[in-house]
Amino acid sequence: MPLWIIYHPPTTFENEETKKNLAKAITEIYTAGKLPAFYVVVLFQAVQPTSSYVGGVARPSPPSEDNKPGPDSSKPFIRITIQNIARKIDAVRDRFLTRVDEVLKPFIEDAGYHWEYSVDETSRDLWKIQGLVPPMPGSEAEGEWARLNEAVPFEMGKGGS
């Protein structure tokens, strides 16, 4: 599953429609690669400015001598962690990162926020959904999961390794 955790100040992503549209755009990164939509989880985690520091300076906060030289501390800082389990992105790394940048641009970069993200890949051997080991990529069972948009039991020969 891709899990995106978007850490942001409470003054950003206040509009539910914005969060919905960003989550949908993120989901489309993966469904374009034939992953079931329900694999994609996006969590918006508001972080108080007094709990988010960049270079020892609270973000956002009024510009101060504590942050000279450095980024404008009055700009909100968005930190995103992406955990990919369902697929390894080695072969498509550059295309994936470009697509992530394209999706984030209108929601974060164009809003003038400072931001960064990182991608972790973990072993799919330690992953279950609804108590089920997910079917292998490209298998008949995974196709059924995508079509139904939910985890359902499957015959090992149709999705196992």
UniProtKB/TrEMBL annotation:
<dbReference type="Pfam" id="PF14832">
    <property type="entry name" value="Tautomerase_3"/>
</dbReference>
<feature type="domain" description="Tautomerase cis-CaaD-like">
    <location>
        <begin position="1"/>
        <end position="150"/>
    </location>
</feature>
<dbReference type="InterPro" id="IPR014347">
    <property type="entry name" value="Tautomerase/MIF_sf"/>
</dbReference>
<dbReference type="InterPro" id="IPR028116">
    <property type="entry name" value="Cis-CaaD-like"/>
</dbReference>
<protein>
    <recommendedName>
        <fullName>Tautomerase cis-CaaD-like domain-containing protein</fullName>
    </recommendedName>
</protein>
<feature type="region of interest" description="Disordered">
    <location>
        <begin position="55"/>
        <end position="75"/>
    </location>
</feature>
